[in-house]
């Protein structure tokens, strides 16, 4: 049949995670649905407690069985509403998980993009820096440091100080007399 009549084209894009999440867990929507279900459960709890009291007060027999049957009906309704509430919470939890995962992937994509950009920039910088140039610069710096050290050594020479000082003089003995 689809070949004859064709497929109906869906012009609306499918809802995104955030759209679905907003519909399910939007502040007003979740509050309305959650409050409604919770109110129903509370009302059923009150009704159920009344039936329990009636069961305790009535004598065993058909009257007590009728009250038990009504209590069972109320208990079934309560369980049904609790199931709906749990299902709603599970749906919102699942959507939150998917939204969190999607945000994580978006963050990973941004990180990848930043890393690619940094990689490209580093490659561009590395093209301008050559190891041979660095080695040549280091050699020049070593030569200049040696020259500087020689200059400092030359400027640091002392004048009129004898090079020969013996240990006796150092220890407090007679000074050595130099002949000129």
UniProtKB/TrEMBL annotation:
GO cellular component, as recorded: multivesicular body
Matching Pfam families: Snf7
InterPro entries: Snf7_fam
Location of region: Disordered: 1-24
Keyword Coiled coil recorded: yes
Protein family per UniProt: Belongs to the SNF7 family.
Protein name, entry field: Charged multivesicular body protein 5
